[in-house]
Amino acid sequence: MADERIVYLAKGTLVGLSAGFIVSLFRLGIEFILETVIESYHYMQEQPIWLIPWVIFSVAAALVVGKLVKSEPNIKGSGIPQVEGQVQGIISLNWWPVLWKKFIGGLLAIGSGLFLGREGPSIQLGSAVGQGISSLTKGDDVEEKILLSSGAGAGLAAAFNAPLAGLMFVLEEVHHNFSPLLAITTFSSALVANFVSLNIFGLTPALDIGMMNTIPIAYYGLVIGLGVFLGLNGWLYTKVVLSLPKLYGRLTFIPARYNAILPFILVIPIGYFLPQVIGGGSELILHLSNWQLSLGMLIGLWVLRFVFSMISYGANVPGGIFLPILSLGAILGAIYGKAALALLSFDPQYLPHFIIFAMAGYFTAIGKAPLTAIILVTEMVGGMNQLMPLAICSFSAFVTADLLGVDPIYESLLERLIASHDSKRNGKKYLFDLPVRAESHFSGQEIRDVRWPEDVLVTSIRRGQQNVVATGKTIMQTGDVLHVLTDLGLAKTVQEELKQLEKRRLFDT
Predict the structure, then answer these.
(1) What's the rounded Cα separation, in Å, for the pair 116 and 324?
(2) Are strands 429-435 and 457-463 parallel, antiparallel or unpaired?
(3) Rounded-to-integer distance, Cα 448 and Cα 124, Å
(4) Does residue 509 have a pLDDT over 60?
(5) Which residues sit opposite 88 in a β-bridge?
(6) What is the mean pLDDT of the segment spanning 398-424?
(7) What's the CA gap between 160 and 207, in Å, rounded?
(8) 3 state SS of 422
(9) Cα separation, 18 vs 41, whole angstroms
(10) What is the DSSP letter of 138?
C-alpha cells in the first residue's frame, strides 16, 4: 500500500508540473489578449473607423471557435460537467484534441472579452493533462480517474493560486466523497501546480484581496440576511442558465454551431463604451469597492453582467461560469451593502466585507459546494479572520437555495449533457466507487440483504487503509467505499438506481 501511494504521489507531482505549466500559459495568454483588446477599445474610442475591421475580425474569431466546437463538442462550456462525467464513467473523451482545442478556443473566447471564466476551462485542461499522463504511463481505469481528478484540482490551483480550494473542489464537487489516495494525489498535484504558477511564471492570486479587518459580531444578522438574498438570486441564476438551450434554439437565423457570432458581436458595444467591465470579472471584483458606484449604477452593472454572462455561456463556446458567478456575487454583495448602508447605520468600512462574503455565498447557492467556496475565498483574502462570517453567509445561502429546490449547477449541466445518451450494454467493464455515508440505508446491512440492480456486483470494500473482500455476509459500515462493477454502457442508469436504492430502508425494498 505504501509503494502504491508513492507511485501515485510521483505521478501526481508530474501531473501538477504539467498542468501548472499549461494552465499558467493559458492564464497568461488570456490576460495578454484581454489587455490588448481593452487597449484596442480605448484606441477605437478615439478612432471609431477601426470598429469596422474589428467587427470583421470578431466574426472570424467566432467562426474559428465554432469550427473547434463542431470538431470536438466536449470543449464547449466550462468543461467541469465533462470532467464529472468522465469520473463517473458516463463520458469518454480523447484527451489530446480536448487539450489543444480547449486551449485555443478558450484563448479566443475569453480573451475577446466575453463574460466567461478561465477557471472551468483550466480545470478541464488540467484534467486532460492527468488523463494524458495516465494514458502515456499505461495506467488502469482506477489510476486514470485519480489522475484526471488530480489534474482538475491542479488546474483550479494554478488558475486561482488556491491549492486547498483545488483539493476541496475535487472531493466535494467532482467525487462527492473522501478517498485518502485521491486526496493525497490531488493535493500533491495542486501544490506543485500552484508552485509552478507562483514561482516560475510569477503569477499572483487571481483575486489577491489581502487581509481585512474582522467584521463585528453585531453585523452577523446582516450577514445571515445577505445569505438569504444570495440564495434567492442563486435560484434565479440556475433557472436562467438551464433554460439557455431553449432560448438559443429560437435563433433559427444562426446555425447552432455558429452561435458564438452573437456574443462576439454584442461584446463590441460593451467594450467600446465600458471596456473596464468586459472579461470574466476578476478586475471588476478588485476595483468594485473603489469605484464608489451608486446603488442604481450597481444594479445596472449587475443586470449587464447577468444578461451578457448568459448570452456568452449560452453560445456553447469554451469558457466557464466559475469566475462570472464570483463577480456577480461581488456585485450583489455591494448592492446589499449599499442598501443596508442607506437603511441602517453602520460603518461603511465594512462594505468590502459584504462583497467578499457574497462571492462565497453566491457560489454556494449555485454550486452547492460550501466548503470549496469558503476555502477559495479564504485563500483569496489571505487570512482566517473572515472564516466565521464566510461560513455563516454560505450556510444561510445554502439553506435558502435548498429550500427553493436548487440543484448543484454542475450536476444539472451534466444531466443535460448526457440526457441524449442511450443506456445500452456495450460489454465493457466499469468499476466505480460507492461511498456508504452516515445517512445511507446501506449502512449496517449485509450485502446479500440489498436488492442490487441486475447488472451490479460489489467486488470489494475499502475500509480505512484496508481492502476487504466482499461476500454476501459482509456488513457494510459507515465510511466504507464499495467497489462496484457494472457495464460501462449502463453506468449512468445503474448509478441513478443506486442513489434511489440507498435512500430506502430494508423493509421498503
Answers:
(1) 6
(2) unpaired
(3) 39
(4) no
(5) none
(6) 82
(7) 7
(8) coil
(9) 35
(10) T
**Beta-carbon neighbour count of residue 336 at 10 Å?**
24
Q: Mutual orientation of helices 2-46 and 180-195 as an angle, nearest 10°? A: 40
First to last CA, the chain: 37
Distance between CA 173 and CA 477 in Å, rounded? Answer: 23
CA distance 128 to 88: 15
CA 196 – CA 461 distance, rounded (Å): 37
The whole-angstrom distance between residue 364's C-alpha and the CA centroid of its chain comes to 11
CA-wise closest residue to 266 among 121, 113, 118, 117: 113
pLDDT value for 383: 64
Q: Are 374 and 169 in contact (CB under 8 A)?
A: no
Cell of 415: 444531466
Residue 502 near residue 458, CB atoms below 8 Å: no
CB 154 within 8 A of CB 196: no
Beta-carbon contacts of residue 222 (< 8 Å; ≥ 6 apart):
340, 344, 346, 354
Grid cell, residue 40, equals: 484596442
Question: Cβ contacts of residue 79 below 8 Å, gap of 6+?
Answer: 102, 120, 121, 123, 124, 125, 127, 318, 320
Give residue-wise pLDDT tens across range 367-391.
Answer: 999 999 999 888 877 667 788 999 9
Q: Is the pLDDT at 420 greater than 60, yes or no?
A: no
CA–centroid distance for 91 within its chain = 17
Name the residue among 480, 503, 371, 492 with its Cα closest to residue 433.
480
Give the per-residue pLDDT at 507.
Answer: 40
Task: Give the model's pLDDT for residue 488.
Answer: 72
Q: In whole angstroms, what is the distance from residue 390 CA to residue 300 CA?
A: 26
d(CA 126, CA 489): 26
Phi, then psi, of 485 in degrees rounded to 5: -110, 135
Distant-in-sequence, close-in-space partners of 197: CB < 8 Å, separation ≥ 6 = 20, 23, 24, 27, 157, 158, 161, 203
Pairing relation of β-strands 457-463 and 466-469?
Answer: antiparallel
CB 259 within 8 Å of CB 251: yes
Strand partners, 461: 468, 482
Question: Using CA atoms, how far apart are residues 225 and 57, in angstroms rounded to an integer?
Answer: 46
The answer to whether 332 touches 354, Cβ cutoff 8 Å, is no
Nearest Cα neighbor of 323 from 278, 290, 354, 291 is: 278
Which residue type is seen at 374? I
**CA gap 31, 23 in Å, rounded:** 12
What cell numbers appear for 425 in the block? 450494454
Question: Which amino acid, residue 462?
Answer: R
Question: What pLDDT, in 10s, does the model give residues 118-161?
Answer: 989 999 999 999 999 999 988 788 889 899 999 999 999 998 88
499's grid cell: 442513489
Residue carrying the nine cell digits 505549466: 21
